[in-house]
Amino acid sequence: MLICKIAVQSYSFFSTLQNIFCTFARKLTIKMKKYFKYSSFMLTVIGVLLQVICYFMPEGNHNTLLLISFLLVMAGMFLYIYTAKKDSRY
Questions:
Q1: d(CA 40, CA 65)
Q2: Computed from CA positions of residues 83, 86, 87, 90, in that sequence, does the dihedral angle turn out positive or negative?
């Protein structure tokens, strides 16, 4: 009897787990859509700050940091163009 009770409890947990995940995913996508237009600006700012940090660092091999900052700035630009086209401002 105890084994059946444990099996039913674990089954009910796994059946509600899917609903909890779907609710979490739905709320997360709503918040992501809300802040999506600001992410292009933040990516660009982070990329520029990395370039400034590389400028003031002592001489050395900073190619990876410069590559990452370049990619962040490019991603910010492309994301801005994408959101502008989506809002039909471009």
A1: 19
A2: positive
What is the torsion angle, in degrees rounded to the nearest 10, for the CA atoms of residue 44, residue 50, residue 56 and residue 61?
-130
pTM to 2 decimals? 0.61
Cβ neighbours of residue 75 closer than 8 Å, sequence gap 6 or more: 40, 43, 47
Q: Can you tell me whether residue 57 is helix, strand or coil? A: coil
In this structure, what token pair is assigned to residue 32? 């992501």
* Angstrom distance (rounded) from CA 47 to CA 72: 5
Burial of 4 (0-12, 13-18, 19+ CB in 10 A): exposed
Mean pLDDT for each consecutive 10-residue tract of the chain (90 residues)? Answer: 50 59 76 77 92 86 87 92 78
